[in-house]
Write a structure and sequence with these properties.
mainly beta; 28 strands; 6-stranded antiparallel β-sheet; 31% strand; 3 domains; 6 helices
């Protein structure tokens, strides 16, 4: 693998600072920092005129069990849901403080749940110098109100070491590592099978058991129906169950919906924490995968606003799907960006563009638009390319901890640069 840093002048005269790498393969690894470090890093003053303190509460893994208990109509099985449901969920009225931090009672505190996250810089220190590491996939940013969700839950297909950790959602573009090559594909929930710990396999066209994601339900909950039994999954673990419908659908997970009570051994195994296994029949041999989007090049289609509809960034009802804060335009918003592409020989091209979060797009000139990113990838020889998570998440390191790109997270402070904690690392070689 080799990489270089260069200034790229685009057709409109805009100059972008780009780190470019040519690679042959990739893998994906979960990142995990200590709960204490995450809490200290993510607890902050709200940028909304400092009217409150946002207290980060790291949650345990969805695999960790709790004693089954009824909370808000759900039978809760996972400790992370029990803990998230106990946090304050309403915004505290701060009129009495007038937004002042020197009020005698101090600013009010609002707690929010945080999933497992880690720091790419830390992870890179343990990798060989020949490796290149970046962020990659979208994740929930705290826009969800359901106790089944947490900031940092990865959105869409994630696979590493030959195991699918999270299923594909929304028909978005994904990069897939096969044993002998890298391919790009658009994958949706209908492209997977769910293998239960008791041996039953739930296929997308199963006439009896429905597999539901937030992308199919604008209301965010399954429809009420007498007799149905539903189990919510976050990653590979069942976290809650409900009878009669009305199950909140995890923003980064799925719901299994039976028309009647499923076999007792199936319920018991899932309740006790036995994980499901996801299979992807179109690509049974994939060893690593990551889904983001939209596609920038390839498939005979040019990047357009329609890409956001085609890849499920908007639902049929017009509902914005995660990532909620992603500016859905191709030519207007400049931000730090990250993309991967393939040249005609199948070589993997990685490009990271220096810039900031799209939240600062009106005041900072750095970064590129998605259309400009597509132009960069085409100029580097890519015939197909996929946009990955950018903005404040954009990070790139060489193995051993060498920073190749100034992180894009500013946290509302234009001259600052923070390492944003993220759920996964993309590791190129």
């Amino acid at each position: 693998m080799r990489f270089e840093q260069r200034d790229v002048t685009l057709s409109n005269g805009h100059v972008a600072q780009v780190v470019i790498a040519l690679c042959r393969a990739f893998d994906v690894a979960p990142l995990r920092a200590s709960p204490a470090r995450l809490a200290a890093d993510l607890t902050m003053l709200s940028p909304d005129i400092y009217d409150e303190v946002l207290e980060a509460v790291p949650l345990p893994r969805p695999a960790q069990r709790c004693a089954p208990q009824q909370i808000d109509g759900l039978e809760v099985w996972a400790e992370r849901v029990r803990l998230a449901a106990s946090l304050p969920t309403r915004r505290i009225d701060t009129a009495a403080t007038h937004g002042r931090l020197d009020h005698p009672s101090g600013p009010p505190v609002r707690a929010f749940p945080v999933a497992e996250l880690g720091y790419l810089r830390d992870h890179s220190r343990g990798e060989p110098q020949s490796a290149l590491l970046s962020n990659g996939n979208f994740f929930l940013m705290g826009d969800e109100a359901s106790p089944l969700d947490a900031l940092g839950d990865p959105i869409g297909l994630v696979a590493g070491d030959g195991e699918i950790l999270s299923p594909p959602l929304g028909g978005r573009a994904a990069i897939l590592q096969l044993p002998d090559r890298v391919v790009f594909a658009h994958l949706a929930l209908g492209d997977i099978e769910v293998c239960l710990p008791t041996g039953e396999v739930l296929a997308p066209d199963d006439p009896d058991v429905a597999i539901v994601s937030r992308h199919e339900l604008a209301a965010g909950r399954t429809p009420a129906q007498p007799g149905v039994f539903e189990i919510a999954l976050v990653q590979r673990w069942a976290v809650a169950a409900k009878r009669g419908g009305g199950m909140p659908v995890p923003g980064a997970g799925i719901v299994l919906r039976w028309p009647a009570e499923p076999p007792a051994d199936t319920v018991a195994a899932l309740q006790q924490g036995a994980p499901v296994t996801f299979r992807c029949p179109p690509f049974p041999s994939l060893t690593a995968a990551l889904q983001a989007g939209p596609a920038l090049l390839g498939g005979g289609n040019a990047l357009s606003e329609q890409s956001f509809w085609d890849e499920g960034f908007f639902g049929n009802s017009g509902l914005r799907h995660p990532p909620m804060r992603f500016p859905a335009d191709t030519h207007a918003t400049r931000a730090a960006r990250l993309a991967v592409g393939l040249d005609p020989a199948g070589q993997l091209i990685v490009a990271a563009v220096a810039g900031e979060s799209s939240m600062l797009a009106a005041t900072r000139p750095g970064g590129v638009t998605l259309a400009e990113l597509a132009e960069i990838m085409a100029g580097l020889g890519a015939v197909s390319a996929v946009n990955l998570d950018g903005g404040g998440s954009t990070q790139m390191f060489a193995g051993g901890g060498g920073q190749l790109l100034r992180p894009g997270d500013r946290r509302g402070i234009p001259l600052a640069a923070y390492d944003r904690p993220i759920p996964t690392a993309l590791m190129f070689r």
